[in-house]
Write a structure and sequence with these properties.
The mean pLDDT is 96. The protein has 17 helices and 21 strands. The radius of gyration is 22 Å and the shape is globular. The strands form six sheets. A seven-stranded mixed sheet has the order 17-18-16-15-19-20-21. Strands 3-2-1-6-14-13 form a six-stranded mixed sheet, with helices on both faces. By secondary structure, it is an alpha/beta fold. Helix 2 packs across helix 4, helix 11 packs antiparallel against helix 14 and helix 16 packs across helix 17. GO terms for molecular function: ATP binding; rhamnulokinase activity. This is Carbohydrate kinase, FGGY family protein. Pfam families: FGGY_N.
């Protein structure tokens, strides 16, 4: 029996999960969970990199009996390594508002639709391409010293193995990867006047291997644990846990800090219609193409919960929120969850929601807890809009949806989605990114014969609920 260790890193917390197959059953044990916060220095936003990397190192040292390790994280963010192999600075956080300067720089060099056609990625200010352009202009010395650009999971892979590689799924979030050709876009690097030599060797998930004996972290070099580049993007990893039915395909909804709703397609869709509806293409395992939309998700609800707790001077349980919203009246006006203001770090949620509604001729909620009702309703309405956009572009109608991620735990949200979108909804597994990570590790270690077998074992060990309209 081989044990594997998956690190699943989200924008507010990271976790380490030990997994193995015993007596034909799938078993897991959470061995680490740590909340983390964005750091603000001199007007810029950074990840608390030393704490993140240190916690991962510590967790590995405490679990030396594992045979391999995998890492998945959020997308778009990166670190820069110099020629001596040193990290030049802590990675910036995608919520840094200075990246808007990179977007303006890109607009001066090419039309946004041309960028979309050559990358397939939804045009968002957080995208790696805009981050890199902003860094080139605002931190020229760092940009010029850089030898390689490593996305967050690849940066951790480097710390654990000493190898500089780029995993395909995480690179497909950059806005610099041509999803139609499944290769880095020479055209974009040239047109945007960016250094192509920053790109590391690109590999597909599961098709490379490093080892801790060559780690940059000295304390890990005494160990000999394989490190596998799984699907580095947490969304791609999570979607390995969704059921596959070629004859009756399903929509997926990865519901966490961000909401990502879409489906699998044969090739990247880069039409004018897809661009105008702000849809995106990314890659998953074995270069599978995903067609979906990124939407501000539970981030806004969590931020408002934190804000209200501060005002009330007490903690608010999600059960209390659910009990209220189930009885509350539907809001008369809704928010556009695409509005960039609702995804900003440090947002004063009530103030921004009130301003938005008043500007649209609506009225703010009268009860503090009705803001939760409003956020839930606005999320579901955006899901409905995106479902219709995708159906229009693909010329097909979907009858079912699978929710994964933390939001799938909410019966209220799942029931509301089923009713408003008129879909059969399957909710679960919940820790889907970590589970998809584990699934590839177990396959690589020969503990399962196929992904289908592993998925079945994980489903048997997971709570999964179904809802109908």
């Amino acid at each position: 029996m081989k044990k594997v260790l998956a690190f699943d890193m989200g924008a507010t917390s990271i976790r380490g999960i030990l997994a193995y197959i015993e007596d034909g059953k799938f078993c897991t044990k959470e061995v680490m969970r740590m909340a983390h916060k964005i750091q603000k220095r001199e007007g810029r936003l950074y990840w608390d990199w030393e704490s993140l990397a240190g916690k991962i190192e510590e967790t590995i040292l405490e679990n030396q009996d594992v045979s391999c390790i995998g890492i998945d994280t959020w997308g778009v963010d990166f670190g820069l390594i110099d020629k001596e192999g040193n990290l030049l600075q802590a990675p910036h956080c995608y919520r840094d508002e200075k990246f808007s300067e990179g977007r303006e720089e890109a607009k001066a060099l090419m039309e946004e639709f041309e960028l979309f056609q050559n990358s397939g990625n939804q045009i968002m200010t957080i995208n790696t391409v805009y981050q890199l352009l902003a860094l080139k202009n605002l931190e020229a010395e760092v940009y010029e010293k850089a030898d390689k650009l490593l996305m967050i999971p690849d940066l951790l892979f480097y710390l654990l193995t000493g190898e500089k590689i780029g995993e395909e799924s995480i690179w497909s979030t950059t806005g610099l990867y041509d999803l139609s050709k499944k290769a880095v876009s020479d055209h974009l690097f040239s047109k945007l006047q960016l250094r192509k030599e920053l790109v590391p060797k690109i590999v597909r998930a599961g098709e490379w291997k490093g080892n801790t004996k060559n780690a940059r972290l000295e304390r890990l070099r005494s160990l000999s644990i394989d490190v596998i580049p799984v699907c580095g993007h947490d969304t791609a990893s999570a979607l390995l846990m969704t059921e596959r039915d070629a004859e009756n395909p399903s929509l997926f909804l990865s519901c966490g800090t961000w909401s990502l709703i879409g489906t699998s397609v044969e090739k990247a869709l880069v039409s004018k219609e897809a661009y105008e509806r702000n849809l995106t293409n990314e890659l998953s395992y074995q270069s599978e193409t995903l067609f979906f939309k990124n939407i501000t998700g539970l981030y806004l609800l969590e931020k408002y919960k934190e804000e209200l707790e501060g005002r009330l001077g007490r903690k608010i349980a999600f059960s209390e929120i659910t009990a209220f919203v189930q009885k509350d009246a539907e809001p008369e006006s809704l928010l556009d969850m695409d509005a960039e203001v609702f995804g900003r770090e440090g947002i004063k949620v009530k103030q921004e929601i009130d301003a938005y509604l008043l500007a649209k001729g609506g009225q703010p909620p009268k009860d503090d807890f009705s803001y939760f009702t409003l956020i839930y309703a606005s999320m579901v309405e955006k899901y409905r809009e995106v479902k219709e956009d995708i159906e229009s572009i693909l010329g097909k109608t979907f009858s079912k949806l699978q929710m994964i991620g933390g939001g799938a735990r909410s019966e209220y949200l799942a029931e509301k989605i089923a009713k408003n979108l008129r879909l059969k909804v399957k909710a679960g597994p919940y820790e889907s990114s970590a589970l998809g990570n584990i699934l590839l590790l177990l396959q690589k270690e020969g503990e399962i014969g196929s992904l289908e077998e592993g998925r079945r074992l994980i489903y048997e060990a997971s709570e999964i609920r179904e809802y109908s309209f």
